[in-house]
Amino acid sequence: LFFMQPKQCIAIIDSIKAYAKQNPTEAQVYEDWFQAVVNLRDALPQDKRFDAYKYSGELRSVCATMMGKMKTGEDVAKVYDIISRTYLFEAKDVFDSYCIYLEWNRAPEKKFYQPRRKVLLTLVRDLEDLFFHRVEFLGVSQPPRTGKSTLCIFFITWLMGNRPDVASVMSGHSDKLTNGFYGEVLSIITDPVTYNWGKIFPDVQLVDKSAKDESVDLNRKKRFPTLTCRSIGGTLTGAVEIGEGGVLYSDDLIEDLEESLNVERLNNKYDAYLNQLKDRKKQGALELMVGTRWNVLDPLGRIQSQYADNPKYRFRVIPAVDENGHSNFNYDYGVGFDDAYYADMKASIDDATWWAKYMGKPYVREGLLFPADELRYFNGVLPDGEPDRKLMVEDIAWGGGDFTSGPIAYVYNGSVFIPDVVFNNGDKTVTKPETVGKIIQHKLNTYRGEANNGGDEYCDSIDSMLRQRGYHCSVRSQRAPSGQSKLSRIIQYAPDIKRFYFLDEKHQSKEYKAFMEQVTMFTQLGKVPHDDAPDSLDKILDNALTAWEEQYGTGPSETTLALRFKG
Questions:
Q1: Residue 66 DSSP SS3
Q2: DSSP, res 409
Q3: What is the model's pTM?
């Protein structure tokens, strides 16, 4: 037999592509093109086979374009068949192609994946990275009924087909949950009418299944089956194992809001996870954890806190709506949820459930300093007349995840209104022009920036940029008080900050919404990743005290807002 080298295969593909451009309606050319791509993959070493999929993807794209230009129905059918075969060709190695070909025979409106693909493709790529050990742990949070469980079922069946001799485990909070998962996996593997699993993995056979043990074994019967589904409250120790290349898949270990509020139950659940699930992983085993982020102390939260800086640990959160309130799950065929649905849901449920269940952010009730329902709001219309003072006090950051936070304060007879903010996690090339623009827009005559960590240089730049635009403003840098922690300072000023007037939600810009989210989620328990927004609010008050002391030589005997801002 004559085996071609990859370069020869690529040369043949290129010549076929050139011929196809000259003869685009000749169906046979696409068949030849496909066979040439198959030859290329056979010629490539195992670790280079993905190079061939670039060519099959290009072929598929061309065929899709030519579908409507074929001269006969027979030619249309040939080209359509080639498209399906490109997906089958890639399905063992490309999870996206697997998900598409798995349901190829189903009516479009009955398919799970393709109507949701535009959103779920991000998660599909995450799961593929997990499969190929690019990451070792993947944490996933999405709103209810958006497809994360079904997609993970697809993933497990893909893993099982590729690694039938490796044991994996699925666990959750209840037997009902794991039994449902077991049934769905079995359906995909054994239903050739609905699913093409058998065509993708023709050499893999189901050899054993047990509804009692919720287990599925492929190729040969083993002590630890290819997949075992077992609730975290069930018998796990000694009964399951996760082999090298296998996956420990945990789905909703915390059952509901009620359980998340019980610290003792959370601790017990985490101990059970460590002692009954994690310790069943062999070296090289992978982990997928899906769950609603009810509490910072839930298993997913603790793992994220422990491994936040580990590049092998990835945490994917897809919230219900984007920063503008638009749905992230407006799927085709009406199987998703539109803007109005989520707006109604947010208005109908409490903040804790909305943020945890729908936005993927654990809502810490204990120790909240600025609960949203305890703050004051206004509709964007400021009081009549000129304010006593207008100022901006900015907590300066240099990017890297931290936010430059600069609330703008208008003071009327001791009442503080916050009509606008700078709140941006970009670097100084982004935040400096924005800050200057806000100063000029609001005609501010006072700007104070925190001088720590190079903030004095930042303030000098702000001053210079304002002068270049012919605008006069008192720009000064001010160091954060020493001898007092940031947290204690925020706590000290919290009662007065709660008397500020903030824009109501419908009048908030994208940055203002993000600013308020950080304010209202801030807890004195010290378990929040960012405190830039509340810290910048306390600086407004601190600046007022400093100004008072500079004028009178001592702090005020009363610390009411009126005394701080008048005079």
A1: helix
A2: E
A3: 0.73
